[in-house]
Amino acid sequence: MDRLNYKGKVFSFYEYSKESDFERDVIEHAKEIFGPKSVYIDIKKKIENNNILTIPDGYLLDFSFEADPRLYIIENELVIHDPYKHIGQQLLKFSISYKASGRKIKKFLLKKIYENNLTKKLIEKGVVKAGYRNIDDFLEDIIFEKEVRAIIVIDRITSDLENVVNQLTMKIDILEFQTFISGNEIINKFTPFQEEIRDLTDTRGEKTEVQELDTIVVPANEEGFKEVFLEKNQWYEIRISSSMIDRIKYIAGYQTTPISAITHYAEVSKIEKYRDTGKYIVYFKDAAKNIGPIKLTTGKRGKAPQAPRYTTYEKLIKAKKLEDIF
């Protein structure tokens, strides 16, 4: 059983027995989990089309990309549920019935939004920035003109769940939310939604707007970098947020110690799901090109990417050192 050690106390992993309790905690921490530019709408409504019935746990209106807001359905799940019969079937049913049930979805979302004045004002602010006339116009577009996406929030990610998600055509993000307890004290450990694009201010205080992001930087050891990045013209098993899949135009490779620098980049040809891992493989248009090297400044090891990070092609090409990018 997993444990956390915090301030001299040992916290044990709490196994939820009821999905309703898990869902309550997710809703309570919705802003931290999904980010300040999102609105979680806690509503369970039946969606039925041609006798296909599904009931999502909630909906998320995400304004992280100001010019391209998106609608996500939320599935709050426990690892004790069968990922094939329960989670997979639920998402498959929704993807089949979603468009045909669009009018119903729009109707109950509008009703829920207008019930809470604070929620209404938050959404109106995002709607204006995105260039819509009003909330009605906004919902019409994101429901009928844009692809719907899903977020699974679960207490433990398993390979079986990733396998199920990999079989579905719908774009899905999986977030882990866990609770640890020690006596009456509680610690929540979770993966924030799109955390890699939340804070993009570099060391000079210059902020990069998320809608400008078009380049992913991946860390690699020297051997793997040579064999895959340089010889196979690809890089795989990358965890990428669904919102970034269609935005990535370039990939850059950061070679870890002793090189500690970005040394090559390539234009992206396509991005596909990688086997049954819930991660992705990036194929290059041509062989990777030399750049820099864009070195990590001595004493700035906290800036070295430990996982995929995003930047812009313009920043990458102009950078003299790693801190110019992140």
Put simply, the count of helices is: 9
- Decide which structural class fits the backbone: alpha+beta
List SSEs in N-to-C order.
Answer: EEHHEEEEEHHHHEHEEEHEEEEEEH
Instruction: Please tell me how large the radius of gyration is.
Output: 21 Å
Average pLDDT, to the nearest integer? 89
Q: Which percent band covers the strand fraction? A: 25-35%
Tell me the total number of β-strands. 17
Helix content: 25-40%
- The rough form would be described as globular
For the sheet with most strands, the description reads: 8 strands, mixed
Terminus-to-terminus distance: 36 Å
> What is the count of structural domains?
2
Unreliable spans? none
Question: What attributes does this structure have?
Answer:
31% strand, seven-stranded mixed β-sheet, single chain, globular, eight-stranded mixed β-sheet, 326 residues, 2 domains, alpha+beta, ph1033 like fold, 9 helices
Q: Quick gist of this model?
A:
28% of the residues lie in helices and 31% in strands. The chain is an alpha+beta fold and 326 residues long.
Describe the structure in your own words.
α3 (83-97) packs parallel to α7 (159-167) and α4 runs antiparallel to α6 (135-144). The longest helix has 15 residues, at 83-97. Helices cover 28% and strands 31% of the residues. The protein starts with a strand and ends in an 8-residue tail after the last helix. It has two domains: 3-193, no CATH class; 196-324, ph1033 like fold. A hairpin with a 7-residue loop joins β6 (58-62) and β7 (70-77). The model has no long low-confidence stretch (mean pLDDT 89). The protein has nine helices and 17 strands. With 326 residues, the protein is α+β, with helices and mostly antiparallel strands. The strands form three sheets. Strands 1, 2, 3, 6, 7, 8, 9 and 10 form an eight-stranded mixed β-sheet that branches. Strands 11, 12, 13, 14, 15, 16 and 17 form a seven-stranded mixed β-sheet that branches. A two-stranded antiparallel sheet has the order 4-5.
